[in-house]
Design goal:
- By secondary structure, the protein is mainly alpha-helical.
- It has a domain of 36 residues.
- It is built from two helices and no strands.
- Helix 1 packs across helix 2.
């Protein structure tokens, strides 16, 4: 039987953020294989990740 006075081991990983401080919402979207390849190439050409490239491309129309 475990000793009730033993401390629990620390959890591994980043601590949870306080409520309302999460980065944002996830919006699932599906792309065809060809679309995904085009997006991946464009993101790589702009030295960005896919999500970052999509975000920048989408909101570029709203900033001008």
């Amino acid at each position: 039987m475990a000793n009730p006075q033993q401390k629990k081991p620390k959890k591994v990983g980043r601590p949870k953020l306080p409520k309302g401080e999460a980065k944002g919402r996830i919006v699932p979207i599906r792309f065809t294989k060809t679309e995904h390849e085009r997006i991946s190439k464009a993101a790589k050409a702009n030295d960005k990740g896919i999500s970052e490239w999509i975000r920048c491309t989408l909101f570029a129309d709203f900033e001008g």
